[in-house]
Each structure stands twice: as C-alpha cells, then as structure tokens.
Amino acid sequence: MLQLTRKADYGLRLMLEAAAAGASFVTTRTVSRRQKIPYPFLRQAATALAASGLLVTSRGPHGGVRLARPASAISLLDIANVFGGVALNACTATPVRCTRRDVCPAFPAWVQAQAAVDRALAGTDLESLLRRQKPLRKARTRDDESIILPRVSAYVA
C-alpha cells in the first residue's frame, strides 16, 4: 500500500496553512491547534521544510513560517521528497533497495506505475489544492477551528 508517512502528512498540512496565509507568517502553534497535530511533531516537519527551502521562518512576535516561493511553484512531490519521497515498493525506492530488478518481469510495470504517481504529485501544486479547498481559507481566520480536508473520493471521477 502506498502511504505517506505521518511526518509528510503533517508537512503537507503545514504547507497548506502557510499557503492559505499568503505573504503573512503563521505560527506553528496556531497550525498545531487548527490541524490537531502534536506541536513537537509539527515543529520537526517545519524544520525539515525550512531546511529544504520550501518554508521561510521568522522569530519574534510577528514571526512564524511562510512559503519560500509561490504556492503555484510548490508541488506535492516537492513536499513528499522532503520526507523521503513516495515509493510504491522496494523496486522503485531511492536509493535502490531491490536486488532483483535485472531479473524481475514485473519491474517495468512498477517503474511505469511509479512514474505515473510521480507525475500526479509533481502536477499538483499547493495553489490548486487551495482552490479546491475553499473552507481552508475561511477557517484560517478562526484559531480554534480544525480544517478537515475532503475524502479522496471527492476528487476521483
């Protein structure tokens, strides 16, 4: 089963909050409350995203985090790669963890499937996600409101 790590999920949710804030800084404490993410774990995700150049951090009373570049220039693949990327299985993982690639008849199919996943993630940017999730922008003004993203089935035709 293909699944993002919890840290990657937290990182994506933080990036969506930062994208919704636009040019303003949003505190990780605020995101932690809104998204119901344990603060220490969210801080770890924020540190990784800042180290990768996707977030800018600022200390002080008006500090927090914000996107380092426009939301339209940050893809889901960019975010997933900060946390180890997404691999369908050991055959498609980087670094290579499969010793049977040369003899496995299924390997080419896994490579094609992985390429399709990578294209889908690379082709989905934060701005397009925000357009789909209008309640996110409304909820960002209410500190106590949890933002619930719709089920995946809402996007599958």
Structural description of this entry:
The structure is a single chain. The protein has 157 residues and is mainly α. It has a single domain (6-145), classed as Winged helix-like DNA-binding domain superfamily/Winged helix DNA-binding domain (Arc Repressor Mutant, subunit A, Orthogonal Bundle). It has seven helices and two strands; from the N terminus they run αααββαααα. Strands 1-2 form a two-stranded antiparallel ribbon. α1 (6-20) crosses α3, α1 (6-20) crosses α6 (126-132) and α2 crosses α3. It is elongated. It starts with 5 loop residues before the first helix and ends in an 18-residue tail after the last helix. The model is unreliable at 143-157 (pLDDT under 50).
What tags apply to this protein structure?
157 residues; 7 helices; mainly alpha; Arc Repressor Mutant, subunit A; two-stranded antiparallel ribbon; 2 strands; disordered C terminus; 46% helix
Number of strands: 2
Strand count, sense and closure of the main sheet? Answer: 2 strands, antiparallel
Q: What is the gyration radius calculated from CA atoms?
A: 17 Å
Poorly predicted parts: 143-157
Q: Please, how many domains? A: 1
CATH level 1 name = Mainly Alpha
Gap from first CA to last CA? 21 Å
Please identify which CATH superfamily we are dealing with: Winged helix-like DNA-binding domain superfamily/Winged helix DNA-binding domain
CATH architecture: Orthogonal Bundle
- State the secondary-structure class: mainly alpha
- What share of residues are in beta strands? 5-15%
Q: Tally the helices: what do you get?
A: 7
* Major beta sheet, strand line-up: 1-2
Please estimate the helix content: 40-55%
